[in-house]
Write a structure and sequence with these properties.
InterPro entries: Acid_resist_chaperone_HdeD, DUF308_memb. The protein contains six helices and no strands. With about 180 residues, the protein is mostly helical.
């Protein structure tokens, strides 16, 4: 089960990165499909975070993982109940909020990693700051066009995938038999 969990984590991260890169080349399709797929992604990510929490609950940063999972599930329920039309109308602000939230989580998690004396501290910290910067851009310029939104969302997805891979890299010893 430990190896399986590690494989799932890496595959999920790589799929997120590939999806983000593809989205950079098809930004209009990203915006159109995001309104439909967003609650599904949030639900799957939330369940995965909660399951991983139970595996690593005694380690530093585990509570942030549980909080992230519960938060993602709550957002998924909200967006499922709103429908596609309302979701697409609020997508810019949602993406800004999600980027800000993920950035703050990465910022806190980076300092947990620092206690473990791992080199991933600086990279996770930088990714957290980048997520916060993306959020501020979305809030300051809510009228950004669909193409820009698609590209920025795709880049955010790539950053999230990279952060997930770095999380796996830092925690990979937990999955060794």
């Amino acid at each position: 089960m430990q190896v399986f969990g590690s494989i799932i984590w890496v595959l999920f991260s790589v799929m997120i990165i590939v999806g983000g890169v593809v989205g950079c080349f098809t930004p209009l399709e990203v915006v159109a499909s995001l309104a439909f797929l967003l609650p599904i992604f949030l639900c799957v990510g939330g369940v995965a975070d909660i399951l991983y929490y139970f595996r690593v609950r005694e380690f530093a940063g585990a509570r942030a993982l549980l909080f992230s999972g519960i938060f993602n599930l709550l957002l998924a329920i909200i967006f499922f109940s709103m429908g596609v039309e309302s979701t697409s109308a609020t997508i810019v602000y949602f993406v800004a909020f999600l980027a800000m939230f993920r950035g703050m989580l990465a910022f806190v998690y980076a300092f947990d990693l620092r206690q473990l004396h791992t080199g991933a501290f600086w990279v996770v910290l930088l990714l957290g700051v980048l997520n916060i910067a993306v959020a501020m851009i979305f809030i300051a310029f809510p009228a950004i066009g669909g193409i820009t939104i698609g590209i920025m969302v795709s880049l955010f997805i790539v950053l999230f995938g990279i952060a997930s891979l770095l999380g796996w890299w830092s925690a990979r010893t937990l999955f060794r038999p």
